[in-house]
Amino acid sequence: LIVLPHHLLVMDYGLGHPGSVHDAWAFQGTCIASNPMQLIPCDHWTWADSAYPSETWCVVPFKKPKGGRLS
Fold first, then answer.
1. Of 11, 5, 8, 12, residue with least CA distance to 47
2. Which terminal residue of the chain has fewer beta carbons within 10 Å of its beta carbon, N or C?
3. By C-alpha distance, which of 26, 31, 35, 34 is closest to 10?
4. How far apart are CA 69 and CA 65, in angstroms?
């Protein structure tokens, strides 16, 4: 379920994956993962946990950079 925090409307959701599937894999099956600009207005973004990709539209706080570490 993807909800944008500024207006709390559901923007996208994924169905059909069993509970044993990792969140990141289930996320790849959503519309927002394949075409984020269709669902997220320009200059907007959404928060996600560290299982999701860090993109300009998908902010992942405290994600360890590749080859780096969190301080």
1. 5
2. C
3. 31
4. 6
Secondary structure of residue 34 in the 3-state scheme = helix
Q: How far from the centroid of its chain's Cα atoms is residue 44's Cα?
A: 13
| pLDDT computed for residue 4 by the predictor | 67
DSSP state letter for 7: T
Polymer length of the chain = 71
Query: How crowded is residue 61: how many other Cβ atoms within 10 Å of its Cβ?
Result: 9
| Residue 45 near residue 56, CB atoms below 8 Å | yes
How far is the C-alpha of 33 from the C-alpha of 42, rounded, in Å? 16
Query: Could you tell me which residues come within 8 angstroms of residue 68 by beta carbon, excluding any fewer than 6 positions away?
Result: none
